[in-house]
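Lab notebook, design round three. We kept the backbone fixed and only want residue identities now. Task for the bench partner: fill in a sequence for the structure below.
Input structure tokens:
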């Protein structure tokens, strides 16, 4: 794993925290389903975007499809790409 590759377990924790643990980190790590299909609401996605921006120093576009249609593996790749691009 490179220095810019986000830790999947940490991303799952951030998603779980954004949902107030309505969706657990274990459920998120064990799934390839889109976050919305797991029960992550639009408000939770907003909270997740804020957490990702703080944690990784990136800028997340709330209209970004990776937040809405990707599962955790796709989100990890997207965060890595944004980190490598230096979107701040």
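Proposed sequence:
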């Amino acid at each position: 794993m490179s220095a810019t590759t986000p830790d999947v377990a940490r991303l799952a924790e951030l998603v779980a925290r954004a949902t107030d643990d309505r969706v657990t980190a274990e459920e998120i790590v064990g799934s390839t389903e889109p976050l919305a299909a797991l029960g992550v609401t639009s408000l939770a996605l907003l909270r997740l975007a804020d957490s990702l921006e703080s944690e990784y120093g990136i800028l997340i576009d709330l209209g970004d499809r990776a937040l809405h249609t990707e599962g955790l593996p796709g989100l990890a790749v997207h965060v890595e790409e944004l980190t490598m691009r230096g979107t701040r």
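Keep this in mind before ordering anything: Residues 8-85 form a domain with the Non-ribosomal Peptide Synthetase Peptidyl Carrier Protein; Chain A fold (CATH 1.10.1200.10).
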